[in-house]
Amino acid sequence: MQTENTFQLHIFSIQGDEGYAGNIGFGALLVGSNYKMTFRLLITILTFLTFTVTAFGQTKGGQVIINSIEKKGYYYFPKDALNDSVLGILSKDSRLKYVAPNNRPICFQWNSICNDGEYYLTVTPQQIYFSSGHNNPNPNFLFWFFPIDSSQYSQIKKGLLKKTPKGFSSTPKYYKETQLFYFDKQFVDTFKIPDEWTDSIQQNLSIHCKAQIEEQLKKYFEIINSFIIHKSDKIKQLTDEDISRIKPKYLSSMKQEIIDWAPKKEQLQKWWTNNCYQHELCKKPNKF
Fold this sequence. Notes:
The chain is of the alpha+beta class. Helix content is 25%, strand content 22%. The chain is globular.
């Protein structure tokens, strides 16, 4: 599956046209090993983007790395976080800090071969979002988010506190005062890793992963909507058309990690050239 000296991001049956993202279905699979940039290249690129290492701010053409807004115990993603010009989002790691009961995020997790890591559906008092995580060097992504209201959140939380959904483990002790966490212990990824990867097997994996994520998210939305009383208040999933317009964003608590995840110089240069709009430096895209 790994190809030497190649960085590819396969979005199910769609390959990222810029080497890191494309129009996505529901998730992504990282393939490749050579995606770390050298420190010298990093400084050169940051100079070109007119950013500093200590403050990734706005340029005239848009934002490359932005910050999530830290609420009282949960992340809030600003609307422009899904703009095409956004490469990554920084969020502080506050998982083990005390959070007031009315602000605790609700997280559903399953482990998957599709990204060699985990997928998360998270519900906060203001938003619901889909993301991925890893206990390895692979990138983490925010795939999408949309707003909900405090009443929807409260009903979901109340229902989950009464009874843990069947097939899920309840919140571990170390998360008791920070979030409601439900691990899908019933889910088992049926895809078998082959001894040798071929284009056909990779295509089969893409089809498998698309179906898996659609099925898992459908199940989770059914669970959370079962606790919402009025039909008109039930939470609707994004359509395939909505999601097809969104490019996944790197998501980390460390900006150096996002930088390390970024594509090779040539791919980043192409991305920036195509997305920097009227920025003065874009007139000289080769001057790294």
